[in-house]
Write a structure and sequence with these properties.
14% strand; Aspartate Aminotransferase, domain 1; four-stranded antiparallel β-sheet; seven-stranded mixed β-sheet; Aspartate Aminotransferase, domain 2
Length: 388
Amino acid sequence: MPRQLLFLPGPVSVAQPVTEALARPLIDHRGPEFAELLTRITEALRPLFGTRNDVIVLGSSGTGALETAVANTLFPGDLVLSCGVGFFGDRFATIAQNYGCEVERLETPLGSALDLQALADRLRKDARHQIAAVLLTHNETSTGVTNDMAALAPVLRSHGALTLVDSISGIGASEFRMDEWGYDVAVTASQKAFAAPPGVSMIALSDRAWERSSKVRAPRFYFDLAAARNAARLGQMPWTPPISILFALDEALRRYHAEGAHNAYARHARYAAAVRAALERLGFTIFSQSGAHSPTVVAATPPAEVDVPDFLQRLRNEYGIVLSGGQGSLARKIVRFGTMGDVGERDILAALATIELALLQMGIAVEPGTGCAAAIEAFGGRVTSGVA
């Protein structure tokens, strides 16, 4: 199959050393080599979560970690306030419903971040503290929206409900200070900002979340966090782990820390700003509202004449440039351009030039070079080849 450049919300392009790590000979998952591997990975993750507590590694996708969060901290019948801002926030709420929680949804218009005042007003009305938990999305890839987790934190702390955060596409791409901001549960996954293959997720709990978890008796087996933590203390995972994926994640985290977290945060933000500038110059409308733009996914509505499925198929089949369409109610309406993975400014410019070509082939009036010019301006005239 011809090489494709992935500009997806995940999975993402993976660097060659990370891919090569997948081919390493397997090791005993109950032996000392695996214990060293697991310890190295969890210690590399801890500062990115912003926690002093254990980071538990799971053999699952990010959705598995979301289910783990619910199954281990929420009681059937709990009143849960879902503060979703898109498709994946709705999924988190559905998981809670499936575990018997009573879910109330705080609605937010698609493309907007969670309204801090609306959240404060709803929590203030809960004078009897019936709301047991709040579900939050750090970064919503379906709409290209990010929430200001630092700004939301004081309002949530003042109420005291347990806070569960989907940061699957947030941690690693932007700052997250779990302990300092007072969040109770946070999850992420390998195939996003860490630029590793999919198949591993991670979860961290606050002290009070661990205490609550010890009392919750919701049915669970594979996703039992007590079993996972007990195994981790022995340098193991409770069930057969995805060893090859962990080899790749270990190498990806080594590369990530060599670049430096704050440089990675700046890189994602810089790429997203350049893509937004270019798409706007080409007649697209950025779907996320000002002040809510995600650093990892740019969602945009193309010119009215553009048939989105045909446009995406043309990019993929003729040029090997892979973008995403919309999900749910946004299907066939928006395109999503991911900025995560082993890609650099030159790759971004190549994708944008290809978008211009595709638009011209579809009969859309664009001035060749304008999108790339806008991106180069956003890059400050300095274009690099890729991730360090």
